[in-house]
Specification:
alpha/beta; eight-stranded parallel sheet; 2 domains; 14 strands; UDP-galactose 4-epimerase, domain 1; two-stranded parallel ribbon
């Protein structure tokens, strides 16, 4: 059994990952989250939580320990990493648009925040550090994207994630910290109702009877990976032998246009009794690539991982979960 530290553990990915870890490998999980986007209730659905002050961390007394704090706090990072076997660094400023609106905040969170937890892990003698990266590191290139494609990020978000990958590489090669960087595709699934990702926004707008807003002509492509497949990849990366210092593409290896996503989502919505949503086309946003999907053969070879859930099935599960959750609140907002 293993002690895990998960930053950003109250967000979308964290609770699903923590539930998997507690079921399979983890004895205890310590969570650091500033609750700017995450919610304590998300963790409470997983297990009983012990909440402690960020400045007074102690050995956990329950299977999940939560300290509310920001990843830019270097002292908190140092304290949080003590007595941990694995650090999974999910916390970040996410998305292209926010990074364009405030590139300095994006840099502080994604570069300095990552550096703080790498330093904390090094000082504490942590055995494995898993970094949540992104396909945005590569930028505009002819897909499928693989790990040897030269990285030329288009957005500040892509640049900050690339910097995190570079620091992971340096800490692996200079200090011997077994880092693994995972470039996530577009993650979706149950629990994402408050996210600003395209699937989550489309579902919210469809439930509210609002048109789905497409930036551009809908021909832009992405690689949509279901949450259960993603958390399985993170767990594999936390334990696999011989992968220190490596980078992996974690996606489905399938290219899907936004227009195709709308069609598949419309089918899933219809199955739950929702009418076909209207479409509104807006100007293409700066900093976004036109085509993006991944070559995941390296993950298959070294992690023994590949995606299993198809987009239609994943959307069906996501819409059903969101529809059931919506019945518990007055409205989707």
């Amino acid at each position: 059994m293993t002690a895990f530290l998960v930053t950003g553990g109250c967000g979308f990915i964290g609770p699903s990952l923590i539930a998997r870890l507690l079921a399979d490998r983890a004895n205890i999980v310590r969570v650091i989250d500033d609750l700017s986007t995450g919610r304590v209730e998300n963790l409470q659905r997983v297990a009983e939580i012990e909440t402690v002050a960020a400045g007074a961390l102690r050995p956990p007394r329950r299977r999940i320990q939560l300290a509310v704090g920001n990843i830019t706090d270097a002292k908190l990072a140092e304290a949080a990493c003590r007595d941990m076997d694995v650090v999974i660094h999910l916390a970040a400023n996410t998305g292209v648009a926010p990074s364009i609106e405030d590139p300095r905040a994006d840099c502080l969170s994604n570069v300095i925040g990552t550096f703080n937890y790498l330093e904390g892990a090094r000082a504490a003698g942590v055995g494995r550090f898993v970094f949540a990266s992104s396909g945005a590191t590569v930028g505009e290139c002819a897909p499928p994207i693989h790990e040897l494609v030269p990285a030329r990020p288009v957005s500040p978000y892509g640049a900050s994630k690339l910097a995190g990958e570079a620091y992971c590489s340096a800490y692996a090669r200079t200090f011997g910290l077994a880092t693994v960087a995972l470039r996530f595709g577009n993650v979706y699934g149950p629990g994402s109702e408050h996210k600003e990702s395209v699937v989550a926004k489309f579902i919210r707008r469809a439930f509210a009877g609002q048109p789905l807003q497409i930036y551009g002509d809908g021909a832009q492509t992405r690689d949509f990976v279901y949450i259960d497949d993603l958390t399985r990849a993170i767990e594999r990366a936390s334990a696999a032998d011989g992968v220190g210092g490596e980078v992996f593409q974690i996606a489905t290896a399938r290219e899907t246009t936004v227009g195709e996503l709308v069609e598949a989502l419309s089918t899933a919505l219809a199955a739950e009794g929702f009418p076909r949503p209207r479409i509104e086309f807006l100007d293409r946003r700066p900093g976004e690539v036109l085509r993006n999907f991944a070559d995941t053969r390296k993950a298959a070879a070294l992690l023994g991982w590949s995606a299993e859930v198809s987009l239609p099935e994943g959307l069906r599960r996501t819409v059903r979960w969101a529809a059931q959750a919506a019945k518990k609140v007055p409205a989707i907002s």
